[in-house]
Amino acid sequence: MPVSTDTKPYRIGRSKTGLGLFATQPIKKGVKIIQYFGPLLDSKNEKHDAIENKYLFQISKRWTVDGSIRKNVARYINHSCKPNAESDVNPAKKKIIIRSIKKIEPGEEINYDYGTEYFKEYLKPIGCKCEGCETKRKKKRAKLRAEKAKAKEKAERKEAKQAEKAKRKKDKAKAKKADVKKALKKAPKAAAGKVKAKVGKAKAGKAKAVGKKAKAGNAKSRKA
């Protein structure tokens, strides 16, 4: 296992969730970074058992470390669902060591997983703000935006299609109306032409009949 660093490889700095602990030099995987310490609280002691704060770190069913004291710099290490460190608990010695589980670069925030109970009690109600969860939320928001844009585009296409269909229907109705109007306009002339043709035909028939009658009269007078 790699040896611990000789000097403090961290500093307290501003984080997304307030204050955090940041690497000031490269930290190798498996290196002891810092100890999480504070007064030991005995669950069998009523006064100890009544103490409540978000820096309580349970070692065993009986013993808990109250890490709320200022000297405990490890209390500034924030939670992460995808951490670069872990809490190495030794119940026999009642010690908690924060150890790196991957290489940590200078300027990178040091974090570890606080555990399911802490997450449910303190982080879930307000929403976890670790980088992993923030990335998930960004992806989810991006997906929702994409789905919303797609739905809007689909609705716009449907609306445009309906508008085009309505326009074609309107144009068809307009053209039909124009045809009817044109037909009505032509109707009197067509009717007049039919009457004229009928009258002309009647006159021609009458003239033909008169001609036949005259021809018959002439033939009779010749016989006489």
Roughly how much helix do the residues carry, as a percent range? 40-55%
Low-pLDDT residue intervals, each spanning 5 or more residues: 1-5
What topology, given as strand order, has the largest sheet?
1-2-10-7
Strand content: 15-25%
Euclidean distance between termini CA atoms: 158 Å
Would you state the CATH class of the domain at 10-126?
Mainly Beta
Radius of gyration: 50 Å
Approximate shape: rod-shaped
The chain-level mean pLDDT equals 85
Structural class of the helices, strands and pairings?
A: alpha+beta
Q: Determine the number of helices (DSSP H or I, runs of at least 4 residues).
A: 3
Oligomer: single chain
Fourth-level CATH superfamily of the domain at 10-126: SET domain
In the CATH scheme, what's the topology name of the domain at 10-126?
A: Beta-clip-like
Second CATH tier, the architecture of the domain at 10-126: Beta Complex
What is the number of strand segments? Answer: 10
Q: What characterizes the major β-sheet?
A: 4 strands, mixed
SSE succession: EEEEHEEEEEEHH
Descriptive report:
The protein is an alpha+beta fold and 224 residues long. The chain has a domain at 10-126: Beta Complex (Beta-clip-like). It is built from 3 helices and 10 strands. It has helices at 46-50, 116-123, 131-223, and strands at residues 10-15, 18-23, 32-36, 40-42, 56-58, 63-66, 78-79, 85-90, 95-100, 109-112. The strands form 3 sheets. It has a 4-stranded mixed beta sheet, with no helix packed on it. Strands 3-9-8 form a 3-stranded antiparallel beta sheet, with no helix packed on it. The termini are far apart. 15% of the residues are buried.
